């Protein structure tokens, strides 16, 4: 009997998990499974998962051994085969890739971060919301991170000066006042994606430092430094991981800097330009972060609870589990 993993609301906050329940699959049993990225960065179907049982994984091409597909349900196989190679399963990358593949989901909420995750990202949204709040409500504004709250305030302004600011903003953006809430919804979603990616990057830093410290220990070990295969693997992994982290940080930094232009110029055209630019980078950023997250999670699961693992064991893990797939991470181009 197949023991399917529990699809939780938090799964959609993940870079490496795609609950199949969100897809328009015909086979009900398959909708209970998940498409995940394994330690080698391959897209596999996870049939069960647990602390005691581990993770039961099967490549999409072998699904026919577990499920009986008919002519009516064969399209499910094709859909999963198309999704498996995606670099990331985060909601922002998925919106782009599902649209590209012509796959329509039944519930758009599946492609939204959970309420808990949005609250968690509030500290990252401060720099993006503050210029807007000041322009609308003045210097005495309270910090607001939910754009639904901002919309409510705009629809029911409590001061005449706020109403004038709203009208002024609409005029500057060359849109009707009634369209301001929609503009803010798009604005919030764009910068929530950047906050999400920054959060994912920051969460990986401690484990990344641990991996780099381990690599330095391996290079200084009297025995291991003579093992050319291990040293080569360590160098390749370190170079690619550090380069990818730097590329992501650089791109996010550019977007943070350019976001100020929207409120300095009060330009809807400027926002549209940034919105399109962010969208063009989401799949690349998501893919790079997904790979890093999967690798750091693998390291953490293997060693964080077991401090007795010796350096040789860690070196072998770097070579056999961390390095494979690293080279497939696409280089993130610089902003124009």
First-last Cα distance: 53 Å
Regions with little confidence, pLDDT below 50 for 5+ residues: none
Share of β-strand residues: 5-15%
Backbone shape: globular
Averaged pLDDT: 86
Spatial order of the strands forming the largest sheet? 1-2-3-4
Radius of gyration: 23 Å
Number of strands: 4
Helical content (DSSP H or I, runs of 4+): 55-70%
Give the H and E element order.
EEEEHHHHHHHHHH
Please count the helical segments.
10
For the report, how would you describe the main beta sheet?
4 strands, antiparallel
**Total of domains:** 3
Can you describe what's shown?
There is one protein chain. The protein has helices at residues 74-83, 91-101, 115-120, 122-137, 147-155, 160-173, 180-220, 228-265, 268-303, 311-322; strands spanning 17-19, 34-37, 43-50, 54-58. It has 336 residues and is mainly alpha-helical. The protein has 3 domains: 9-112, no CATH class; 117-179, no CATH class; 204-328. Strands 1-2-3-4 form a 4-stranded antiparallel sheet. Strand 2 and strand 3 form a beta hairpin.
